[in-house]
Specification:
Length: 416
């Protein structure tokens, strides 16, 4: 079988008008995700020498994003992507620059936390916007392929972002990595907002279907969001622990490489997952993938050197994309279109809440125990994800997909 035939399901996605543009621009706009988080750690640690403070500020940024992002998503479902995104990105630029200036100028720590929180609160959730466009354009199994492709794009972001921000911060100055990520995100966000032709229409709520609140408080959304908290703790902890581990080994530049390899494993798994058709329901696939994630990350407990960390990171990374893609597919199948962006944002909210806890706990663990022992933080968090999905399995397997039933509103209207 030729490579073209093998990847035909992915190539066929771009027959959708406008899909190549919104996916590629969406990739650019998502590049700041690892750059801002890791860039904050490198910026603050470089200015203060404290990983505890760096992890806490990175966590504050992620926490505010997780709290406010669903509110932006609800507004987007009602008013449309382009209008809301322009407003959001403008605020993101102002507060993001102000945070960097406050840290560099040595302002009071309370101001650092305030500006980090405001930056996170206005960070655009581009991934949810891109997936909403795919969900509008595609039906059936093509959606799983599209979601798998976007998971691969996410991992490319995490392959490129960590080495880039680490090199900029170590070779130029600590603020360079953070500010580069911020400006790339602003450019990508405004560009994405300008792609109006592929923007999904605003949908009215179907009066005969489940209410918006009932859909968003369904067992599926709640279980996936809670499991995502534990998964996010892994990602937040890995950023901090790997940076500390590399610096203890006097090989700071290796931190970006290790994190990139972690993401590379996920990228490979995401490509494969998008091509295969696994047996079982969406819920069963999600449960199995998260259990595998919980087991695979226990490999971190054997890390004792950079030579061991690199292959372990790759193998552990193989479990990430299938868990994320299966969760996204499950949520997408069980909410009406009038609440889709908000529902998808709750997955990100769970992840970023976990990042908040993971980065803060890992920063404290590195300061108290050393980076090698601190690998227990992401390992335990991954184990919790596996246990939580097993506990929620009866709810996931009993729930059913909803009939979207939502109709597009006329141009210029908004959902109430």
């Amino acid at each position: 079988m030729s490579p073209r035939s093998l990847f035909r399901p992915y190539l066929s996605l771009f027959a959708v008008p406008g899909s190549l543009a919104f996916s590629l621009v969406g990739w650019l706009a998502r590049l700041p995700i690892p750059m801002i988080g890791l860039g904050t750690v490198l910026l603050v640690a470089g200015e203060t020498g404290s990983y505890g403070l760096a992890g806490a500020l990175s966590g504050a940024l992620a926490l505010s994003f997780s709290v406010v992002s669903p509110q932006w998503a609800r507004l987007t479902d009602r008013r449309g992507q382009s209008t809301v995104l322009r407003l959001q990105v403008s605020a993101y630029l102002v507060f993001g620059v102000a945070f960097a200036v406050a840290v560099i100028a040595g302002g009071p720590h309370w101001l650092w936390f305030l500006l980090a929180a405001l930056t996170g609160a206005n960070s655009p959730n581009i991934g949810a916007l891109v997936r909403a466009r795919w969900a509008h354009a595609l039906d059936g199994t093509a959606r799983q392929t599209a979601f798998a492709y976007e998971a691969v794009v996410d991992e490319v972001v995490f392959v490129v972002g960590p080495p880039l921000v680490t090199l900029l911060a170590t070779l130029i100055s600590p603020p360079a990595g953070y500010l580069s990520g911020l400006f790339i995100g602003v450019i990508g966000g405004f560009w994405f907002a300008g792609l109006r032709s592929s923007e999904p229409p605003v949908h009215a709520v179907d009066p005969t279907g489940p209410s918006r609140r009932a859909a968003l408080l369904s067992p599926t959304i709640l279980v996936v969001a809670i499991v995502s908290v534990a998964m996010g703790a892994v990602f937040g902890a890995m950023d901090v622990v790997v940076v500390g581990f590399a610096q203890e080994a006097e090989a700071s530049a290796s931190a970006g490489l290790a994190l990139a390899v972690f993401a590379l494993g996920s990228l490979v798994a995401g490509l494969v997952y998008g091509l295969v058709r696994l047996p079982g329901s969406l819920a069963a696939r999600y449960i199995g993938c998260v259990v595998f994630f919980g087991l695979a990350l226990q490999l971190l407990l054997v890390v004792g050197s950079l030579g061991v960390l690199i292959p372990v990171a790759f193998v552990a990374g193989l479990s990430i994309a299938p868990a994320l893609v299966s969760g996204t597919s499950l949520v997408e199948a069980r909410v009406p279109r009038s609440a889709l962006t908000e529902a998808l944002s709750w997955i990100t909210t769970g992840l970023t809440l976990g990042v908040t806890a993971g980065s803060a706990l890992a920063g404290a663990a590195v300061d108290a125990w050393g980076a090698e022992s601190a690998f227990a933080v992401p390992a335990v968090a991954a184990g919790m994800a596996g246990l939580l999905v097993v506990a929620g399995a009866p709810l996931l397997l009993r729930a059913r997909s909803v009939d979207e039933g939502a109709q597009p509103l006329p141009a210029g209207s908004s959902a109430g």
